[in-house]
User: Fold this.
Amino acid sequence: MSTIKTVNLGGQGLVIPNIGLGCMGMTQLAGNDIYGKADEAESIRTIHRSLELGGNFLDTADLYGPLLNERLIAKAIKGNRNQYRIATKFGFEINDNEQLTWQINGKKDYVRKAVERSLKNLGTDYIDLYYLHRLDPNTPIEETVGVMSDLVKEGKVGYIGLSEVASETIRKAHKIHPLTAVQTEYSLFERNVEEAGTLKTLEELNIGFVAYSPLGRGFISGEIKDPNDIPENDFRKTIPRFQGEQFYKNIVLLNEIKALADQREITASQLALAWISTKGFVSIPGTKRVKYLEENIAAAQIILSNEELNRLESIIPLGTNTGARYDKAGMAAVDL
Assistant:
């Protein structure tokens, strides 16, 4: 039996579990491991186990690999496509040699090129939820969303969304075609969307919110006890949250979160996921292992009281510096 809850994401009709599966770590990114080494067979088992537990919402992007992640998902869902809800993203430009140029491209022709490539790599003729991965500073959002709207009319895409965008961008886009979701990094360690008023904008416009990296890029799991625990070619080496003195300041905060979790007899990860779902948002914790997938999905049933929410948020109040979520180049691509 499924132990997961389903929710309406936004106001356009998409129904998904309140905890999805982030698939990014199941493949390398431009030759680097993401959260340690991946194992294809175990990744596919994780996707299958997620479906057994009612977790049929998979999140990927053409960036991951590039392209390898979508192809892995195609293997996992083959013969069972209609059971899954698949979200993928485009925007980081990938050339005809399947190489990242690291430019953001939201131009009309590129959107069409990207969607056809994703459809082929996923082995499907429709994408449930299609996101613009990052805002193209050189292309009006109205142009990008205009062609995404055409893809919906053509049946290639069910619903559309944006990732890491500010309220002004959201309002402009939503006028062109109703957005179903906005995806942004959000966790106890990263609450910029609250500080910037983005969540209020989404509530006003009835657009769903999807939290990626809800475990602070694995920080909240507590697996990494020292910056030296991070493998040499793991991209977290570049993230300020995991570096130097900031890392140890964050560990002090994490220990307080763990103490609260112990009182509920759950893990810190489950507490962090329950915090997001109790607030009414969808999270997509990434994992490539069945063990962690089962732990994450079990959190879908945990509801926190207002007192517990307040206690948790008092550990890391809004405005606390926990380290930027990307290096300078990564932050430059975020529309804040």
In short: The first helix runs from residue 40 to 52. The first strand starts at residue 6 and ends at 9. The chain has a mean pLDDT of 95.
